[in-house]
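Progress report, Aim 2. The chain analyzed during this reporting quarter is listed below.
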Amino acid sequence: AELARLTEAAASDPLNPAVAAARGVLLLALGDAEPAATALEAAVALDPTAPEPAAALAEARLALGDPRPALPALRHALALAPHDLALRNNLAATLTRLHQHREAHDHLTSLLHTHGEHPALLCNLANALVLMGRQSEGVAAARRATEIAPDMHLAWRTLGAALVYDEAGTPEELRAIGERAAATLLRHLPPPPKPRAPDKRLRIGLLSSKLRTHPVGWLTIAAFEALDRRAFDIVSLSGAITDDAVQQRFRACAASWHDIARLAPAAIAEAARAQHIDILIDLGGWGDDGMLTACAERPAPVQIKWVGNQAASTGLPEMDWFLTDRWETPEGYEPCYSERLLRLPHGYACFSPPAYAPDVAPAPAAARGHVTFGNFGNLAKVTPATIACWAAVLRRVPDARMVVKAYQFSDRVLADRCAAAFAACGIDPARLDLRGATGHRAQLLQHADVDIMLDSFPYSGGLTTCEALWQGVPVVALAGRSFAGRHSASHLHNVGLPDWIAADTAGYVEIAAAAAADIPTLARLRAGMRARVATSPLCDARRFADDLGAALRRVWREACAAA
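Predicted structure tokens for the chain:
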């Protein structure tokens, strides 16, 4: 009723900034961010000196999911209200999303010095520190947030997101942190209807804002396209429709598409229930824009976690199953997960190579006379132990070079810090080629410069490992204990390269050094790698979809039998 009144008032008095601002704030409170931003833009244009509508406009633009237009709105609002702590914290979070991590860190450090240990500031600082490659400091900041605010969902969620990158993290603690995060959530909806009809055609809901060109897309879309339509309908609960090529593939294989990205968790759950979904697959996790909180409302009788911030147990009691394989979670790993483990017989992911992937280039060592190692991951995964191990490899192979590519190295200060860490391990920075952000096509092309990829730990490569193998580059991996630490191990088993997986850092160095010593064998492996990967379970969408379909039917029948 109030919205109707304000809409009528705005129509009759369109130059009144107070009416436009009030309508925008109300729309934002109702979760309708797009018209809220339009109304608030009008309010700010009508009175650019008023801090309240400027602050609300910044919040509305943040709610739309794209941080780029939010940044100028935040800066304008802060110019009007320079001491507003919430605005300044939002600015830091936005800078982090825009990959301006060092500026975000400096801003947050200043705020903490001025305002004290506010838990929201500590959470944002933890995120910035991890993304700068300062994992243990990020974990410490997040732990402090949980100490100050033990009932704050964001604090536990941030701690879990930071600890998965840290050498001190264990799968048991990650599960416990997920359970603490889940325990802070309120549940509003009654239980869903009991599952019935074990042999019915199942409605499979996909919950994620990442059903597009994203690791979630590259690692799942082919499986959903190949899923038997006689047995399964797909319902996509995601973001707004765009012209993204991978999203178009998701749309083509879905019976219906629903934009729920800007809804509150309970509203997402209600939207899912309205679609009568039988099995809901979460593809977002506890990530920054994940929708796992909606799963606490139990929108479907059966719920499964797969890909999309799938680094450790969610800890959510309403999450029934965790999709995995025997290499990601070997027998005996069950206590590390609050969910039941739904092991597929081959890999846990189904890789779709990009159509624009270049041909496999010749092994560069053959022309250069020396091996070039590489890593094309995220700086958050490059821990001190990882650098020490890579340095040990470079000492064992003294004529080798290494390309380390991370989008964070577009910041020269962060690149120099990484080079200094190698230097502290006895490696001349002249042996390193530190590269910053490029487009995806350019990144795939740069595999032509690398003979052997050196994986990170404790958080291993996922999509980057698949892409390296597709481009003919073998990967040396260390099998960790956490789910995040075993991605590469799963992929290497699936393409028939288990000998490239080490049990410890000493074995890792031996595998890398032995491979570098045999350039002709490297060249032959590279030449046949794409055919090996293309015919492996990693890329066999038909086989994966059959395995996935059988697993979905099994868990549904179990749920029906237990109802």
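The mean pLDDT is 95. The two ends are 42 Å apart (CA to CA). These observations will guide the mutagenesis work planned for the next reporting period.
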